[in-house]
Structures are given as structure tokens and as C-alpha cells.
Write a structure and sequence with these properties.
The protein has 211 residues and is α/β, with parallel strands linked by helices. The chain has five helices and ten strands, in the order E-E-H-E-H-H-E-E-H-E-H-E-E-E-E.
Length: 211
């Protein structure tokens, strides 16, 4: 099964993740971004947020990020200026939330609730929408979309930490085998590494005739 369908769709889909070197999305007791976010990276996040994105997220990420955005907007959260700007800016960005437990209307501005099957809904969105669709957190959502062959870009920002003892949310558990063709890379603040790939989902190891 191929991982790209850009030629048949109006909107590209990107899975966008932050990750420790050993493959975790977060770690117990560590601050957000493992405490390593710098001005260059945060400025890039603001630039990305101003682009023509529609963010896709699940219920847990919605609850977390909407709460952080509201705290940042209130100005009493302890976020830095750049952190606060990145979080409050998310309110203006179109968001699609996939959940069977949340109820409409959602309180976070510009948030649309979808209760139908995720893969079917996103496949339709790719055909009927323009611009770029991008995941926001939501590891199980990312996994489902990648396994379904709907992902056009797979982008990681790798943070230089190993959290083997405290790491939580292993990103790649349950993933299919995937071949990755690098199309972009960049270093932020001398320590964070952006890696962007075109993914192709494999049904077996390369050379086995099952790719």
C-alpha cells in the first residue's frame, strides 16, 4: 500500500510529531518540549501556525491544547511570550476534532467535531478541501492515518534527550513498516532536528516482494 495520494486529492495530509531520540512523545516529570524549546524553534512554530493549515486532533489532545490555549490567553499561566503566542494563535486556526465522547458545539474557536470513522472522514477531506491537513499530537490518530496510506508527509522534530526511564507515549508502537524518503531537514537553536519524509507503507520487508 502506498503512502501518498497527492495526485488524486486537493489537500495534502501531514503527520507532525515531536519526539525524544528514543521515540517518546513526552516524559514524566519533564516540562513541555523537554525544556529545550528555543527562540528559533518557537518562532518557526508561529510561522507554521500562520500558514494554510487545518489541524486534525483527537479528544484527549483537544482537551489538553484548548486548556493550554485558554490559560495562555488569560496571561497567568507562566508560559513565556513565545510559548503564549504559539498557544493562543491556535484558536484562530481551523481544527477538526475526531471524537465519539465530545459534544458539539466545541468551545475552542474554529473547532469542528466529527464523530464518523476517522479514515473515511479524512479520505473525504483530502478530496474536498484545499491547503494542508496536519495532525496535532493525537498519536493513535496519526497511526491510523499512516496505516491507511493517507499520509503525504511525515515530519518529526527530534529533541536530543533519551527518556528511557521516564518516557511516556511510545510513538511507533503499533505502526506498520514504513519506508521514508527524506525531503527536508533543518536544525533549530543548534540542538533540535527537523526531519521531513514522504512515507510509503510496506506490507513486508524491502526485497521480500511484499512492499
Amino acid at each position: 500500500m502506498g503512502g501518498t495520494h497527492a495526485e488524486a486529492s486537493s489537500a495534502d495530509l501531514m503527520v507532525d510529531l515531536i519526539i525524544s531520540l528514543d521515540g517518546y512523545a513526552s516524559a514524566e516529570g519533564w516540562p513541555g518540549w523537554w525544556g529545550l524549546e528555543g527562540p528559533e524553534y518557537l518562532a518557526w512554530l508561529q510561522e507554521e501556525g500562520a500558514k494554510d493549515y487545518t489541524f486534525l486532533l483527537g479528544a484527549n489532545t483537544y482537551r489538553l491544547m484548548s486548556g493550554m490555549s485558554e490559560e495562555a490567553a488569560a496571561g497567568d499561566s507562566g508560559f513565556s511570550e513565545n510559548e503564549g503566542a504559539s498557544l493562543t494563535g491556535l484558536a484562530a486556526v481551523p481544527k477538526v476534532v475526531f471524537s465519539s465522547t465530545l459534544e458539539a458545539p466545541l468551545t475552542w474557536p474554529n473547532s469542528e467535531l466529527v464523530t464518523r470513522d476517522v479514515v473515511e472522514a479524512v479520505a473525504e477531506m483530502k478530496k474536498t478541501r484545499t491547503g494542508r491537513l496536519s495532525t496535532l499530537g493525537s498519536l493513535s490518530l496519526c497511526r491510523s492515518l499512516l496505516a491507511a496510506g493517507l499520509v503525504d508527509r511525515f515530519r518529526l522534530v527530534v529533541f536530543p534527550v533519551i527518556t528511557g526511564r521516564t518516557g511516556r507515549e511510545r510513538i511507533y508502537d503499533g505502526y506498520p513498516d514504513v519506508a521514508l524518503k527524506m525531503v527536508d531537514s533543518r536544525t533549530f537553536d543548534g540542538r533540535l532536528q527537523l526531519l521531513e519524509y514522504v512515507p510509503t507503507v510496506l506490507s513486508g520487508p524491502p526485497g521480500s516482494g511484499a512492499a
